[in-house]
Amino acid sequence: IEHNLPDDAGRAYTNMSGQGAIGISAFPPDEAATLFEEMLHYDERVVPGGAFHEWHRESRAEMWAVQGRWDEAEAELRELTSIVTANRYLLVNATSFLGLILAYRGRYAEAAEVVAPFVDVAVGINDLQAYGTMLLAAAGAARGQGDASGALDHIERALRLRGETVEHDISSFL
Predict the structure, then answer these.
(1) How far is CA 50 from the centre of its chain?
(2) Is-contact 24 167, C-beta < 8 A?
(3) Quick check: helix, strand or coil at residue 119?
């Protein structure tokens, strides 16, 4: 920030935020909230609507999702998924967490409808952070609709795709 390097600052904020770690933060909740306020204020001042700004908003929604702040997370994720310029990876992440929240709230059919178009997109990205969460969201929606076999198929697919990859946050979530 001091040297006016917005890409480096954006990446540093992303790493500090725990984005992609299923909302797990290295900071206590109050410090994490302060970090997000600082980060988003920086984004809005320097690169509003830029890639890092969108990813930082998604990361905050991940944190809200695991904190049970589902109304806030759902609103943020719905807005992010409506952004035409959002890249496919961001759309996969935001849609995954939206699907998880909807399933957590018992809105299984809506969750299934939201994630269905993005399951193969997530797998195509070929990154555990993309397909792991998406396949879990699809599994939660299937389970909630009484399709235990379909739910297990999604989880087994995620584990098969993961193979021997060691990545503790997503693997623990699986």
Answers:
(1) 17
(2) no
(3) helix
